[in-house]
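Person: I keep going back and forth on a fold encoding question. Show me how you would write down a chain together with its backbone fold. Please set it down just below, with no commentary around it:
Helper:
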Amino acid sequence: MDRRRWRARLRTVLTVALLLFVVVGFTACSLSLPGGAPAGETDPVDDTRGSGPPGGDEPAPDPDPQPDPDPEPDPDPDPDPDPEPDPDPDPEPDPDPDPEPDPDPDPEPDPDPDPEPDPDPDPEFGATAMRLLELVNEARAEARSCGARGWFDATHPLALEARLVRAAQGHSDDMNANGFFSHTGSDGSSPPDRVTREGYAWAAVGETIARGQSTPERVVDAWLASDGHCAILMSTRYTELGAGEASRYWTLVFARPR
């Protein structure tokens, strides 16, 4: 802006100087033309005017100086650009919705629950269970050899226990229904698992199984003829018995409560 104003003023000064130069040159030419005043004479002077420059002719008035051309307007400054909008702040995350509660896990069973009294203190056992108990106690009442497992003296009789009967009958039913023969149940359970599942807190557990025998007498004879099975039937560790049968799948469960 200052440069443009300075240039405009300079043009004005140069214009005035040029005009003065033209006026002075014009006056000098008038003095040299023929018919001018003789030497030694002076032109009459108009008293109403003040003394003028020699030569009598009044110089033409200075023309009105040309007005400074409007300076080129400064170009409008670029309008302030619209400020870039602040990026939208990251929206605050919605609070986590209430999570759905995890379903209550199945409580872990007490590995050693206190023994619960049988709800039926005098249950009616089936004929098969009663006959098996009778035969086992007859065998236990006599001393006998169990082959490689050694000699066993006569020992105390066992008593049927309802929870053990349910465990024994349940395993016979499982073997019959699923067509297998094993101490491991179809659900992967072991004899202690099945006894515990019935609510019996045990200190010792044993099991014998058999299949194919048609009567309780034949199945007990088969067990006594097997060294390992014979040793279980004669063991002094046990005090209670459970017995079950399903389509010639036989199970005896021996236990002593805590």
Q: What stands out?
A: Strands lie at 144-145, 151-152, 159-160, 202-211, 240-246, 249-257. The chain has a mean pLDDT of 75. The CA atoms of residues 115 and 201 lie 5 Å apart.
